[in-house]
Structures are given as C-alpha cells and as structure tokens.
Predict the 3D structure of the following.
Amino acid sequence: MSEDLLKVRNLTKKFGTITALNNVSLEIRNNEMFALLGPSGCGKTTLLRIIAGFEYPDSGQVLINDSDLLSIPTRTRPVNLMFQSYALFPHMDIFSNISYGLTNTSLTKEEINNQTNEIIEKIGLGEHVKKKPNQLSGGQQQRVALARAIARKPKILLLDEPLSALDKKIRQEMQVELKRIQHEFGITFIIVTHDQEEAISLANRIAVFDKGEIKQISTPQELYENPTNEFVANFIGEGNILKATSTNSGFEHPCLGKVNISHSMGAGKSVTILIRPESIILSPATTGAGQITDAVFAGAKKNITIKLTTNEIVRVYADKSANLEVGSHVNLSFNPQDVRVF
Ligand code: ATP
C-alpha cells in the first residue's frame, strides 16, 4: 500500500455550462492537514462534496487506500464532513449532540457512552455536557461540531471553511486547537478555505485552486518562496508583481535595471517578476527609481509604499527605525536569487 491515503485522479465535474472541476488530480497522505485554497467559486467545496459523497463526478476516480471510494455509499464512507454552520441539534444537550454521531453503528449503548466521554475529555468540553448549543460561545459550539464529526473515528475529516464564523482572536485559538486535535486523533484533515493566512498557518500542504484547476500543490513555505506561476505568486503572501522584459541572462525593468537570473524564456519576452516586500532594500537618492507615497509604523517594521517612475506600486518592509519619509526619492536593491520570473 502507498503512503497516500487518498488519490484523486482526473476528476471533472460540470454543473450545466459551469466546469466546477477540470481534470483535477492530487494525493493526500496519511495524517496530513491538507488545505484546498482558492478564491470563491474555484471548485474547492465541490471536491469536498465529491469526497464526502454528496456529489458525483462526471469523470475521474477517487481512491482511498487504493480502493474505489466513489462506489461506497455516503453513509458508510470512512470520511466525515464538518459543516460550516456546525448543524448542531438545538434541542439536544452537548453529550447527545456528540453521541448522535455514534448511533446507527454496531456499538452498544455502553460503548457509545464511553467513546463519547473519551472525546469530550480530549476536546475539553467536560464542563459543558449538560448545556444546549445556544448556551455555548461560537468557539465552544465549533468544538462540539468537531467532537461529533470525529466521534466515529473517520479516516478523513473534511472541514468546509471551519473558522469563518469566528472572530479573529477565537480563530487563532481554534487554529492551534485544530492542529492539536488532528495530531492527537491521528485523523487526516482536509480543510477548504479561501483565506491564505489560515491555510498557511494550519496546513502542512496546500493545493491552490483557480477556476476548477489546481495551480500548485506544495508546502506553505514552498508556495511562498517558489510559486510556479503568477496566480500563486499573487494569491500567497504579499508580493510585488512587476512587468519586465526578459534578456538572455535575466530581465530588464525600467526602474530596476538589468538583473541576472536564470530562466528558460528566451530574450525579448514580456515577463512578470515577483519580489517579496522583505527582499527589497531602499536607499535614498536625489532622483531615484521611485518616490515614497506612504510610510506606516507596524510594530516590528515599517510598511513603505513606493510609486515607481513606471507608475507601478511597490511595498517594502523596512526597519522600524529607518529614516524614510513620505515624498523622498529612493532606489531599490535586492538579491537576484530572491526574485521569481514567470
Ligand atoms: P466558495 O468558497 O464560494 O464556496 P468554492 O471554491 O467552494 O467557492 P464551489 O462551491 O465548488 O466553489 O463551486 C464551483 C462552481 O460550481 C461555482 O461556479 C458554483 O456556482 C458552481 N456550483 C457549485 N455547486 C453547484 C450546483 N449544485 N449547481 C450549479 N452550480 C454549482
């Protein structure tokens, strides 16, 4: 058996004239925290719903441990979906909401009680068992939904925008909690999100989607440092995307000059370059490549905005003590190794 738990192969799903998924393939490993990331309408939820068994693809395969998943009835698939709305039963107390996930199984009443208590203990809901969902905070309700979803010990837990209903502070706490729970229960999590910060802080690998297609699958660090296309460069992290012309030994930009960097695009082509804000060093100049239009104190750093003479806008993270005033002219320098060309 391969170390891949789930294999998605050449999956296509259309809704009328809309192609929600276009020949999508990916592999998800055992115990991964895997994120499906992309803008609204790019097909992430459709993929999640196919894995859960609520949609069926037009073509392609989904394998779990190398066996066909799509032929397994929804109810008996070793996967579970945690709904964005939590979908808790308002009239049931927390214990019953969680144990509900174990009814209609071969477990005895005593086994259901024991398994429910074990999960309540591990997820830290002990003091709330007798309460109803409306007596809990948003973060606590989410823990209940999570406990119910993993009560059956699925191989894969699917989470659709799990943190979107929570405010920022609780979101950050729940990110840590989700990682802890995933680790403790050893269940593979597949998380759908449109929030790149959330995907980066939660997932060990991310598939970046655009218009029903996967643009890149990688670790968060690799997506940030080595995006393979302009879409990913734009979508992950803050970046300066500029237009330049390729040369045999790199590229040339009207304000940045000639830069040596290897690429395989040939000379004289219009190319896009990516430089991250932390990779740029500014130096004062009488008439420089650009002029500072904004300088904002941001704790450990200063966020500087520059308008280049090409009218392109560049953002730079400068040292908080840097003497960079709005209106002053600057030149930009950087290590060519920190630039990506598309
Ligand atoms: P969001 O983050 O907004 O939920 P998404 O990336 O999850 O977006 P999907 O929900 O998978 O995107 O939708 C992909 C495309 O398929 C969209 O254009 C959507 O309108 C369309 N779509 C999804 N489900 C259906 C359906 N049942 N009937 C018709 N069109 C659908």
In short: Residues 186 and 286 are 60 Å apart (CA to CA). The chain has a mean pLDDT of 92. The longest strand covers residues 4-15. The pocket of adenosine-5'-triphosphate is lined by residues 15, 18, 20, 38, 40-46, 194 (CB under 6 Å).
